[in-house]
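Database export, one record per block. Field names are fixed; values are copied verbatim from the stored entry.
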Amino acid sequence: MKYLILALLSLNALASDFPDDPLIRLLAIDSDSGIQGPTYSKIVEELKSLEESFSDYAQVVTYGKSVEGRPLSLIKIANKNIISTKAVYIGGSIHGDEYLNIEDRLPRWFLEQTATSGTILSYLNQGGVIYIAPILNPDGYDRRERENRNGVDLNRDYTVIKADVQGFKEAETRSLVEYLSRDLGSIHLEVTMDYHCCIGALLYPWSFTGPVLSSRDEKRHLVVASIMKSSIGPGVKVGTTPVILGYSAKGTSKDFYFEHFGALSFTYEGRRNKENSFFQEHTTMWEEILKNLVTL
């Protein structure tokens, strides 16, 4: 037992020094969420069904193809009769084994709220857009693998100038950002969140050691963090990747969205084997986030 503990401590230290080494990561980090979902094709079918049922608000976009040729699909939710001025982006399963069964259920919940006069409808009627890409890494998702089929960690493949990372070498990340950049145009991207697993934490920029947010930007991110803690529970940790996870990661989505678009950008690390049972808490969180966006 003594030697096992020492070995695990050594692996964790190596993971901090070499977070992008596939072998070290495989040995030291178990990121599998333990939550099973339908095939990727079934999830895309659900998005298309929503497009048919909520035609005034929903549009399914195929923005590219994965390494193995699977369609890369997201759903865009907006009032099609109103000029869009602001947006929220939600992504899931950029690591194929970190599916939470939250991000793929959110589209239906958002769209069902358009039948009421509540917060979601108000946001859309004020020019708000909600983009949801429930499975960013479909090849990895269907195989229950972290990386894409080129063996690349897609959450290290975003261009982050401050980190000296030139990304978008993989089809999955490049296609998504090219589409978002075109479609957003002058629309202000306000908040982004990628769902991951598995420690129960909300992470904000920066993902690597060195830079820190200005006090103004940190306060703005902490407003969202306080909403999450009040909605999902006080046990959710809040901070940066180096502080909460203990390693430095360059080329992450949240750093890109913050640096490039000026969005309040987050990674939510769900809880292994049980995050799917907290769906109602996530809907409460998103309702509160949209309600408060104008004051952030």
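Remark 1: The beta strands are 58-65, 71-78, 86-92, 128-133, 188-203, 237-239, 264-271.
Remark 2: The CA atoms of residues 2 and 259 lie 44 Å apart.
End of record.
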